[in-house]
Amino acid sequence: SGVIVLSWYPPGMADENGEPTDDLVPVILDYAHKYNLKVTFHIEPYKDRDDRSMYHNVKYIIDKYGGHPAFYRHKTSTGRFLPLFYVYDSYVTIPEIWANLLTVSGSQSIRNTPYDALFIALLVEERHKHDIHRSGFDGMYTYFATNGFSYGSSHHNWAGLKAFCDSNNLMFIPSVGPGYIDTSIRPWNNHNTRNRVNGKYYETAFSAALLVRPEIISITSFNEWHEGTQIEKAVPKRTGQVVYLDYKPHKPNVYLELTQKWSEKYRKEQEQWLM
Question: Which GO terms describe its molecular function (predicted)?
Fold first, then answer.
């Protein structure tokens, strides 16, 4: 079954453009269960996020939602089933602080407690791989949907990152996306626009991800259309000055179909790798 990764802030907190999201989690879990999906969390860089507050966050999430049938647990190589958390902008906190939480001997260690989990750090620059390893994270993901925007989001660097992860017992989770355009909110960012090329961009990203045989592939997609990463159904639409990009000449659900196609391909290939 698929896994939805929710942007999450602690109760009462939100980003500067948004509303608090924790109240929505129970509804999302219930709906996910109805459709045989699992849910996990993308922990956002809220104010004063550190080893102590993260310990409390993880405890809160697992205590409150860990018993729900839609709560995601990942089967590890040792056969344990652990929650999995993506930690956005993890690099803003120094490895020494993360190590307090994420290494067995750390002062706030969550390891071998009922709240142990897999923690996945964001890799943006190449040097982050060493920091991630030192911090005690279990893996890394690349997040950005723009090929070439960062070291981590550049497809041609994935093989090297996967090799680093393999040799350090880390998970490598490449992130794919259908395209990118955020010039309606960041007019200066034109150089990071990536044309969808009628679905080819998305397929190229999936193809690059499959080449490195990852344990998980993440899809970076929002239904906030100002970044142009949505994969849900779309029909031509305009409101005032804004013209939304549609999927013509394809059907409104072409990106959902491509997601299904590549998910199935990934599943089949994974069976081969494991033989």
Answer: glycoprotein endo-alpha-1,2-mannosidase activity
